[in-house]
Amino acid sequence: MIIDSDVRALGELVGSENVSTRVADLEAHAIDESWFKPHPADVIVWPSSTEQVSAVVRYAYENDLPIVPWSGGSSLEGNPVPIHGGILLAMYRMKSILELREQDLQVVVQPGIIYDDLNAQLGKKGLFFPPAPGSSDVATIGGMVSNNSSGMRAVKYGVTRNYVLKLRVVLADGTVITTGSNAKKTASGYDLLGLFVGSEGTLGVVTEVTLRLVGLPEKIAAVVASFESLREATGVVYDSISGGLDPSAIEILDTATIQATNQQQKLSLRETPTLFVEFHGNEAAIDEQLEYLREICEDHACLNFEQATTTDTRIKLWTARKEARESIKNAHPGATLISGDVCVPMSKFADMVDFVHDLGEKEGLIIYAFGHAGDGNLHTEAIVHREVSGEYEHALEATAAIVNHCLEIGGTSTGEHGVGLGKRQFMQREHGASLDIMRTIKKALDPKGILNPGKIFPEE
Amino acid sequence: MIIDSDVRALGELVGSENVSTRVADLEAHAIDESWFKPHPADVIVWPSSTEQVSAVVRYAYENDLPIVPWSGGSSLEGNPVPIHGGILLAMYRMKSILELREQDLQVVVQPGIIYDDLNAQLGKKGLFFPPAPGSSDVATIGGMVSNNSSGMRAVKYGVTRNYVLKLRVVLADGTVITTGSNAKKTASGYDLLGLFVGSEGTLGVVTEVTLRLVGLPEKIAAVVASFESLREATGVVYDSISGGLDPSAIEILDTATIQATNQQQKLSLRETPTLFVEFHGNEAAIDEQLEYLREICEDHACLNFEQATTTDTRIKLWTARKEARESIKNAHPGATLISGDVCVPMSKFADMVDFVHDLGEKEGLIIYAFGHAGDGNLHTEAIVHREVSGEYEHALEATAAIVNHCLEIGGTSTGEHGVGLGKRQFMQREHGASLDIMRTIKKALDPKGILNPGKIFPEE
Questions:
Q1: Is residue B278 situated within a structural domain?
Q2: What is the pTM of this model?
Q3: Mean pLDDT over residues A141-148, rounded?
Q4: CA A407 to CA A8: how far, in whole Å?
Q5: Domain limit, last residue, from B181, B215, B249
Q6: Within a domain: residue A21?
Q7: In Å, what is the CA distance from A51 to each residue of A89, A203, B431?
Q8: How far apart are alpha carbons A42 and A58 in whole angstroms?
Q9: Chain B residues within an 8 Å CB radius of A376
Q10: Which three-class secondary structure state does DSSP give residue A325?
Q11: Mutate which of A106, A177, A293, A434 to disrupt the B interface (most B C-beta within 10 Å)?
Q12: Are B149 and B251 in the same domain?
């Protein structure tokens, strides 16, 4: 428990104007975009440098206080919710681009910079950081590193972990380390980078990130294709990926998601299962791929195959896809969304989609399904009216059934949202004995258990 | 020290015919392709299953015996040399393809399978595992996983770590874990996969590997281009990569390497600094890239730009490149080669190449330079006649100077060969405080220090 003297001491470390125990501040950092019960920290600290982060973490270490980094707050699994109170490190004021090394296709940033803001700056130099999280206007690079986030473009470009070259990290006792290299590849020692990426603030607090960048594509093309059934749509995904197509995105939306999208985004898409497909490349390569995709779609009795002919149309369509969750949310005012994020091997994707739909029908629940089909990553949103007795528990059970089915067919409980609070219960089943190794590492790096406690590991 | 009762006990675990203390066997596993002093194990064990590996490791654990996995023996840094004796686990009989999941672009293999053998099998299905180590006819998947190996194709396709989806690992006490998922991406818990890949057998013994695969390209094109100077050649590399070309290989060979290659491979390449460039893709995309490359080469006063017009020529040229180290070796019979493997950010590659050449001249040493230019990965071979007093030490000093310069300009001491014995002395400088974290992890996972002792970490 934090006491007045702690608040004063923290004020001495970062300036008292950067420390708050006001209820409004505590409440603003008590829950992310997930459906869990909010829990406030005892105190919010806004650091502005690695040195300040180090000083605050050291204070937490010496005084056995929980300390939880928070950046965009757009996560979906309760990842930065301070469920044990303590200090919340609000990282979002540390949002500078420290160095853009165009010549090496690298950028060094602070963790609080927002994904879209970073790409806006990089775009001026013809560069971008590809993993494209859904909430790109809120999600920060620090949050993406913590959760190993990705999104629509992972199918071509990979996930955040594939782009992190170097990290500055404050460890549990306040020690500052730099790990990684500016070289594009290395075989030097243990891969600490990979370990910190996706550790959700439980092993250290990231204060600087060096990212590898990619040149903007010469051309972008987008297609919307509608199908009679989900089976035909998933068939196209499977044939495309296994046939060697290289889309920069291949997204699926079920009928209900298309309906919500039409309604909220003022579109008039045909209300059947739909694929959004995007290609990056040069003109010749894209034309060849578009033609191949059209053939595959025709083989699957495509109802409609429409290429976005203008940049405006393309952007409008992709915004609609990106806003799918928002559209669903707005279509059910006052309802709670229980989000799923399963990811399965490609050949099991159709099975996974069918399972979700059958389950919704069988259980009489509204469950939307959409996602990054090319990676086998399916998002679900179960709609819950908390005022209806039992519906919340019912939807939670259904979401758990989806995860369990996913694990049964060789998938993972989370493709890109991380474990946070929401997936802890599946860790033992998913990882078996290797969960003990994760615990061993957690204990070795954070012996007092002060860093974002209660996350990833099922509480004992 | 191993005693007779140990040998008998090991025989009971794996069958006495699979245990040997014969001098010839010990000598055959006493040194890899590096220049270090051979050191024999006390006993060689050839396991044939995960269960046997587990039993042998548990025996080592209970009896405090060093245990070192060995597969292809083609490493270049002494990575599997049993410098503290003990048990050598010869993994190369475990070389089966356990499951090819074509539909998911995945294969499950045992660690002893040779890279070329695996790709020969995969090729029949139109698939391949891209990282292309130089010694692909000897290197095993297990060794590649241990050292996070790569090679010529990493510039387009990435390194071994990027392809490992799942591992079965025997831990220090004999416990068997499976880590990773069959899904293409995951954000579930700590990245143990990344940690085991590149840990050189110091954290566990890998007994099964699930790899992500890639479809074979529709077309391959190759170009050889010669230049007046190394500066012009490195200029082409820089302009190509920063200009967005996407070669599947872009290799540099200095004049001396070309001379050795001509001589040993019966070629008549122009004896000046040379680039070998390869493209994978569809016809249209490749043609566009070839044209762009030609323009860049012309801007750098290219002396010769030749496209391999037949598959035979292309394969002959690439074999010549792959055999560069072998050619150098054969050009200096009886000499020792001291190999370097530095990797620097792209903008520093020209500087690195110049440094090596100036150093060779200044020091009066023969130092060949060639490598994976598109990744900034430069290999050097310093030629040493051990009978010439002081030459060995002189060449070692020069190789150390190359690494130190590399670290000074933001590079890594090893791009793809791993640390082994050869790069241990640079770990403190390269990693600083994060080396302590690596030590903490080593200690947590292998508290008795029995797994491949003496590697990666400078001995205290």
A1: yes
A2: 0.97
A3: 98
A4: 48
A5: B215
A6: yes
A7: 13, 18, 20
A8: 17
A9: 183-184
A10: helix
A11: A434
A12: no
